[in-house]
Write a structure and sequence with these properties.
The protein is α/β, with parallel strands linked by helices. It is built from 10 helices and 6 strands. Helix 8 links the parallel strand 4 and strand 5. The N terminus is likely disordered.
Length: 235
C-alpha cells in the first residue's frame, strides 16, 4: 500500500479530514484477533480468558502482551514477547480469511473521496498483519495508510494519528479520529483532536462516550448516513 501526502493541502484547509482505525472499525476482525491472541498465549503456557484479551485489542501487540502480563503478575523476556507476537501472527493468518469489511466501510471511504475530503487509515498492526484487511477494502492505490512500523509510540499514544494528519498535509486539530475502542479515543484525546466511536468492536456506547467520543455510531454505514453532523458539504 502506498503512503501518500496530499499534493494540494490548500484544498483541504478548513475542512475536516478523517483518520480511521482499521480492525473493528472498517473490518470485522476484532474477535478473530482475540482468538489468535488466546492461541498465542496458550502456546506460551498462559491462559487468558477471551474477555480480558478483548479489553486490550486496539493496542499494539507488544503493549497488549505486557498489559496482560502485568494484570496477571507474570513476566516474560523480550524474546518471549516476540515469540507470542509471532504465534499471534500465525494464528491470525489462518483466521483472516473469515474477516469481512464492516457494513458501509468501503462506501464511507468512497464517499469521502468523491467529496474530495482527505482520509487515512491508521492501524496498530504491523504491515504484514494489516495487508489482508486492507486488501479487502479495495482501497485506491494512493490511499494513505499508517502501520505500526511507521510510528515510534503506538496507541494509546497520540503519535499514530499525528503521523496520519502529517501525511495528509493537514493540522491534527482539523481531523476526526474514527475508532471502535477506548484506546483509539484516548489516542485522539492526547492528540487534541475530535474522537468518533463505532460500536463494531464490542465496546459499549457509554464506554466510548466516557473515553471522549463526540458521536457514537453503530457501524460505518450509520456514520455515512450522518456525515452532515460533521458539517460536510454533501453536494
Amino acid at each position: 500500500m502506498q503512503q501518500s501526502k496530499s499534493d494540494d493541502s490548500s484544498k483541504q484547509e478548513g475542512r475536516l479530514a478523517f483518520l480511521f482505525d482499521l480492525d473493528g472499525t472498517l473490518v470485522d476482525s476484532v474477535y478473530r484477533h482475540v482468538l489468535a491472541w488466546q492461541e498465542a498465549f496458550q502456546k506460551s503456557g498462559l491462559d487468558f480468558p477471551a474477555w480480558r484479551i478483548h479489553r486490550r485489542v486496539g493496542m499494539s501487540g507488544g503493549l497488549l502482551i505486557r498489559a496482560l502480563l502485568r494484570e496477571s503478575e507474570r513476566t516474560m523476556t523480550e524474546k518471549e514477547v516476540k515469540q507470542v507476537e509471532e504465534y499471534h501472527g500465525e494464528a491470525y493468518a489462518r483466521l483472516v480469511a473469515d474477516v469481512k469489511p464492516l457494513p458501509g466501510a468501503r462506501e464511507v471511504l468512497s464517499e469521502l473521496s468523491r467529496l474530495k475530503i482527505a482520509w487515512a487509515i491508521v492501524t496498530s498492526s504491523a504491515p504484514e498483519k494489516a495487508q489482508p484487511a486492507l486488501k479487502m477494502l479495495n482501497l485506491p492505490s494512493d490511499a494513505t495508510v499508517i502501520t505500526r512500523g511507521e510510528v515510534q509510540r503506538p496507541k494509546p499514544e497520540p503519535d499514530p494519528f499525528l503521523v496520519g494528519a502529517q501525511r495528509l498535509g493537514v493540522e491534527i486539530r482539523d481531523c476526526a479520529v474514527v475508532g471502535d475502542s477506548v484506546w483509539d479515543l484516548l489516542s485522539a484525546q492526547r492528540a487534541r483532536t475530535l474522537g468518533v466511536g463505532v460500536l463494531t468492536g464490542g465496546y459499549g456506547r457509554e464506554e466510548l462516550e466516557r473515553a471522549g467520543a463526540y458521536r457514537v455510531y453503530e457501524t460505518p454505514e450509520d456514520m455515512l448516513r450522518h456525515l452532515d453532523e460533521f458539517d460536510v458539504d454533501l453536494e
